[in-house]
Amino acid sequence: MRYLWVFFGRNYFFFMFLLFEGISVWLIVDTNDYQGISTFNSTNEVVGSVIDAVSGVEEYFILKKINQDLAEENNMLMNKTRQSYLVNDTASYFINDSIYRLQYKFVSAKVISNSTQKRNNYLKLNKGKLNGITKDMGVISPKGIVGQVIEVTDHFSSVMSVLNKNSRISVKHKKSDQLGTLHWEGIDYTHGTVIDIPTHSKVKVGDTIITSGFSHMFPEGLTVGTIDDVEIRNGEHFYTLSLRFTEDYNKLTYVNIIVNLLKYELDSLDKAIIKEKN
Amino acid sequence: MILLNIFRLILLVFIQVFILNKIYLGGYVNPYLYVLFILVMPFNTPKWVLLPASFICGLIIDMFSNTLGMNTAACTFIGFIRPVILQSVMSNREFSPGDEPGIGSMSPRWFFIYAAIMVVIHHMMLFYIEVFRFSEFFITFSRALISSAATLILIAVSQFLFFRIERRL
Q1: How many structural domains comprise chain B?
Q2: What is the ipTM for the molecules in this complex?
Q3: Where do the domains of chain A lie, and which CATH numbers do they carry?
Q4: How far apart are CA A56 and CA B50, in angstroms?
Q5: Which residues of A127-143 are buried (b: 16+ CB within 10 A; e: fewer)?
Q6: Which pTM does this prediction carry?
Q7: Any CB–CB contact under 8 A between B15 and chain A?
Q8: For residue B30, which residues of chain A lie inside 8 Å, CB to CB?
Q9: From first to last of its 169 residues, what are the pLDDT tens digits of chain B?
Q10: Domain of B41: which CATH number?
Q11: φ, ψ for residue A60 (rounded to 5)?
Q12: Does residue A8 sit at the B interface (CB-CB below 8 Å)?
C-alpha cells in the first residue's frame, strides 16, 4: 500500500492532468449536446450580465444601421396595412374575423452576443423565461431566419444559429413548392446549402428559398435566401444548392422570437404518431 | 507576481472574448491570443499550480463563448506538456525566481519556437474537438494552421511591445 502512495506521489502531475482532462472531456460530452447547455454556460446570469453591459456600449456604434433597418421594416409593415390597399370590390360578402386565429406572436429581443466564424455558432438574447420564451422557439430577423432557442434562463436565452453543424431547417423552393432541407457546411457565413430537392423540379440560379412552415417553429413563407449555384452531385437524384442568405448574420442586432400559440396542440399530434409507431 | 498574472488573465480574456472573437476574417482565421497567459507563466511556477491555472483559464473562455469543455481540454493539455517543451528548448541558463518565458529571458528565436509548438498543438486540438468529424479533415487542418499563424503574430506584437517598455524602465 505504501508503495502505491509513493507511486502516486511521484507521478502526481500526470494523474492531476488525467483528472483535469477527464473533467473537460466530461464537460464536452455532457453539455455540448445542444439540448443541455446549463449552469456553467454563458446563459449563466453573471456572465450574461457582463456580456450585456459590453454589448450596450457596442450598440452605440451601430445606431445608424439599426435606425435604417427599423425604417425599412416600418415601410414594409405600412405596405401591409388595410389603408394601403385599394378596395375595388365592395359587393363581395363579409368575412367573419373569427375564421382567422392568431397562431404566431412575435417577441422582440436584442442580440447580446453572436459569432459567425466558428464551426458551431450560437447567439445570446436578452429575453428569457420571464418574457414567455421557452425551448425550441424559432428566431427570425427582419431579412431572414436566425435559428432556434435551445436554452432559457430567467432573463436570457441561448439560440443555436443557422450557422451550426446541428442546424436542420425545413425549407421549400418558392416557385415549385418542392421541400428541401437547409444546413450549413462551414467556413462562409454568407452561404448555406439546401439538399433534398428532387432533380425533376426546375431550379434556377436566382430563385428564392422560403420556410416551409412544417417544423412548427417558423411560419410558412419567410424568405431565407436566393440560390447562388445549382449542382447535382454524382449519382444523386437530388440537387445540392448553394444558398446566399438574405440576412447578414455578422450584423445582427435586433431579432424576433416566434411564439407559436398552437404548438402544444401540434406537438400532441406528433406524440400520437410516435406512439403509433412504437 | 500572482496579482500580475491574474490581471493579465483578466485582460487577455477580455481581449479574446470581446474583440478577437468578434472580428470576422474570412471564416478561416480565429486567433486565440489568450494562450499567452499559459505561455508566459513564470519558469518556477510549481506544477500543481500550472495545471489548475491552465484549466481555469480555458474554463473562463469557454463560459463566455458557449463552447463548454473545448478550450478547457486544449488548455489543460498544453499546460501538461509545457514543462517538457520548455526543458527541450531551453539552454542551461539559470533563472532568478519570477522570471518569465519571453524574448528577453530566452532568445527571441527559442521563445518563438517554444510558442509555435505550444500554439499549434493547442489550435489543432481545439479545432478538431470543435468539428469532431473526419469528413472535414483538411479544411480543419488549414483553419488550425492559419489561425495559429495569426495567434503567433499577435504574440510577437505583444512581446515586442512589452519588451521595449521593460528596457526603458
Answers
A1: 1
A2: 0.78
A3: 35-77+102-261 (2.40.10.340)
A4: 36
A5: bbeebebeeebbbbbeb
A6: 0.64
A7: no
A8: 117-118
A9: 788 889 989 999 989 888 888 776 766 788 899 999 999 888 888 888 999 999 999 999 988 887 778 899 999 999 999 988 888 887 666 677 777 888 877 778 888 899 999 999 999 999 888 877 777 788 888 889 999 999 999 999 988 887 655 554 4
A10: 1.10.1760
A11: -60, -30
A12: no
